[in-house]
Design brief:
4-stranded mixed beta sheet, alpha/beta, 4 strands, about 40% helix
């Protein structure tokens, strides 16, 4: 799975696909003070972007790739500790 979930952190790695949207939404609803780590994410399906936007949770670790960093992160907000 491109997104690895533990009690408090979701780590995005590689190409994160549409199949991860429902598990991400469910995890965000269940996790107490969720932490989002996009540091290893190389691409993000728009369904995942919509889930992240709807959740309104801060991104603890921003993606390193130029496109995600420069175009997607401004939409999600500044990276800041969750």
């Amino acid at each position: 799975m491109p997104i690895h979930f533990d009690d408090r952190t979701a780590r995005f790695e590689g190409a994160c696909t549409v199949e991860e949207a429902i598990p991400l939404a469910e995890w965000l609803c269940a996790a107490e003070k969720p932490r989002l780590d996009l540091g290893g994410c190389t691409s993000l399906h728009t369904a995942l972007l919509q889930v992240l936007l709807a959740a309104g949770k801060p991104i603890a670790v921003p993606p390193q790739g130029a496109f995600l960093r420069d175009w997607v992160m401004p939409t999600l907000g500044d990276a800041r500790p969750a």
